[in-house]
Please model this.
Amino acid sequence: MKKHFFRFPLAIAVAFTTFSISYAQQRGNAPLPDPLVSHIDNSVKPGVDFFQYANGNWFKANPIPPSEQSNGIFQLIQDTINSQVRHICESSAALRQNVKGSNKQKIGDFFFSGMDSVSINRKGLNDLKPMFAKISAIKDLNGLSRLSATLMSIGVSNMFDFGVGQDDKISSRNVIRIWQGGLSLPDRRFYFDTDDHAVDIR
Model:
């Protein structure tokens, strides 16, 4: 299995270590243990497999979970964030005396609406039928443009996407970026193929 690990640039690691030692000496304390050193697996020769040598102990202490295909610092961070968000959602949904319009009431109701599989299955596609009708009513490019604008206004990207990002030439400023999007299905054949699978997807 491929192991993913957040690799510190050497310069950053050296600077961090130097700062830690300097700070500790100024306070009259012994240098703090270097977390990077604790990850080293001395049973591996660095000339044979430097990555395993530098990170072996970390992977021994943090094996890849059976449910995952990789593990690493970023994975641990994401798992922690997901757990915290789930706790906020579940605890908010469990409250019975939420103030109407409060953040907890909104979070709790939104989370419950997505987890209430019984109601979701019972309603099926009924909530989407008005939008399907609008799509079916498109007769020309003007109609397509109007519906595209409607979809964009409710957060459904189509036709094109845009956002704000760092300027490629002047890194000190941000610019609006616009790039090609789509109609939501992966590529052209999903709209034109006539086999049963394609028809069912549409």
